[in-house]
Amino acid sequence: MVLKRNATDVKTSNLVKIQGALEWLEQNQDKTLGEINAPPEEADDPTAEPPALNPGEEARSLVCNDCGKRFRSQAQAEFHASKTQHVDFAESTEEIAPLTEEEKKAKLEELRLRLAEKRSGVSEQDKADKKRNEEIRRKSTKETQDIKEDLKKKEQLKEAAAKRREKQEEIAAKDRIKAKIAADKEERRLKSEKEKAEREGRAPPAVSNTAPLATTSGPVVSKPASAYTEARLRLQTPSGNVQKSFPVETTLFEVAAALGQENGLEVQSFTQNYPKKVFDQMEFGATLKELGLVPSASLIVK
Fold first, then answer.
1. 290 DSSP 8-state letter
2. What is the average per-residue pLDDT within 154-165?
């Protein structure tokens, strides 16, 4: 069926298209994309048609025989057909009053408000998602940093233990060399005395294999620092004094780590009052024996 368009329809075609778009938006604003694209449901009686025009009557609107919706002009019917794929239209004598300017403004404002509400809901959801993702990222970053710190501390303890072993092996090697030199020196001395006694025609001096026994009548000699295997430390911390004993080959880094594990302290330095001396982190790799803190010492923890 072809409906002739008069001059008025041509002049108001843009207005009709806007009205058709507003009506379509109003009808489909609460539908999902799937519902909009779904094929329309058939009317209760798809074969029913509006009554034919009587002689002398004018067509004032168009009606869709597929769904029963009425339209003011052919432009609206074409718009409806392009959206729903309906093709069966007929003329009707019922006139559909056009929207007034106030009604158009009201409908546009209503559509804007509904669109703003939907966007606001999406925006709030986006904010909540971003906040949750940021919390997950921060938690993951903190756990990663804690793991890295633990690995770093373990590596530092391993390095300190390796250095301590190296120093112990070095000291033992030096002691063996000293003992060998002393034995060679004693051997040369005995050989020289024996040769001298032979030249003079007397018996060689007897070699004594036993060391003289210590007596209680002589003065008591204190042991040298190298003879101690442990160091007693009195540590003055912000929470009180702590007394601890460590092997002489323990490094200051290990002492600081022990305080950190027991008291939660982050040690920056140790200070000795007499003689006045400050041991900062540059010296944490040295042992208590090397720093002269054997057999005992008092340190202020900072």
1. T
2. 83
Give the residue among 120, 136, 104 at the shortest CA–CA distance from 23.
Answer: 104
Report pLDDT for 13. 54
Number of H helices, E strands in the chain: 6, 8
Token pair in block for residue 168: 């112990």
Let me know if 167 is exposed, middle or buried by CB neighbors in 10 A (0-12, 13-18, 19+).
middle
Tokens read off for 1: 């069926």
Cβ atoms of 116 and 29 closer than 8 Å? no
Higher pLDDT: 296 or 2? It is 296
Identify the pLDDT of residue 271. 92
Strands 230-237 and 277-280: unpaired
Query: Would you list the DSSP string of 245-287?
Result: EEETT-BHHHHHHHHHHHH-----EEEETTTTEEEEGGGTTSB
Instruction: Determine the distance from the C-alpha atom of residue 120 to the mean position of all C-alpha atoms in its chain, rounded to a whole number.
Output: 30
